[in-house]
């Protein structure tokens, strides 16, 4: 099978970094969490907010974590933003607090690698790219002997994460709101 190899982006890869940031915005404007957060904005307003959010998230991962991407025909079709333990993320924490998700977890400020976002271009989904990207990032987490954490915003993505060893820790269910799930993957030693 022709499995794509994810590559690590650095700040020097400016066009790919811009492409990856745009992909995150394009994909996450459909995400239930963000839609709930910005229910009062029109599409353009949401895009502006997400551009700001993901530009900062990208900068954090470039500086303090890892940005991994699958590039096809010169464009980014999949991207994952990882933050190393201890990554400063005060602004993201404020947003989380506003979303009602608190800020009390060990989080990236603790001992875990935090998956801030993973996105596959819609036209490229279902080919296993999300799984390839996740596995690649987790191999690096495993090399550090560390735990990983993330927040699943859809049941579909939760299934994907479970297949890669994440376990749900906090369930939020309400009749009117989509379900979000904090998930943690225990540390593994390579062997
Ligand atoms: C979640 C996502 C990264 C998966 O990427 P992918 O390349 O389609 O995933 P793979 O082909 O490796 O695996 C497919 C699995 O992804 C999950 N998935 C979640 N949303 C999906 C979607 N819209 N399309 C296809 N698969 C999806 C499913 O678990 C699916 O497997 P299933 O057979 O159990 O349903 C991608 O669908 C995406 O970008 N979704 C929108 C953004 C998002 O939800 N990000 C995660 C937020 S927590």
From TrEMBL:
Gene3D superfamilies: 3.40.630.30. It holds the Pfam family Acetyltransf_1. The keyword Transferase applies. Residues 25-188 form the N-acetyltransferase domain. The keyword Magnesium does not apply. GO terms for molecular function: acyltransferase activity, transferring groups other than amino-acyl groups. Keywords: Transferase. This is Acetyltransferase (GNAT) domain-containing protein. The lineage of its organism: Bacteria, Bacillati, Actinomycetota, Actinomycetes, Kitasatosporales.
């Amino acid at each position: 099978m022709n499995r794509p190899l994810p590559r690590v982006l650095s700040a020097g890869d400016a066009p790919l970094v811009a492409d990856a940031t745009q992909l995150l915005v394009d994909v996450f404007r459909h995400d239930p969490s963000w839609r709930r957060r910005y229910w009062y904005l029109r599409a353009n307003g949401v895009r502006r907010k997400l551009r700001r959010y993901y530009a900062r998230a990208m900068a954090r991962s470039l500086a303090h974590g890892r940005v991994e991407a699958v590039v096809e025909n010169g464009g980014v079709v999949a991207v994952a933003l990882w933050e190393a333990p201890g990554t400063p993320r005060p602004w993201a924490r404020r947003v989380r607090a506003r979303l009602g998700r608190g800020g009390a977890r060990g989080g990236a400020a603790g001992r875990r690698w935090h998956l801030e976002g993973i996105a596959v271009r819609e036209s490229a989904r279902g080919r296993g790219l999300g799984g390839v990207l996740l596995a690649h990032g987790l191999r690096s987490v495993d090399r550090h002997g560390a735990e990983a954490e993330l927040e699943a915003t859809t049941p579909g993505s939760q299934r994907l994460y479970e297949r890669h060893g994440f376990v749900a820790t906090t369930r939020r269910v309400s009749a009117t709101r989509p379900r979000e799930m904090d998930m943690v993957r225990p540390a593994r030693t390579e062997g």
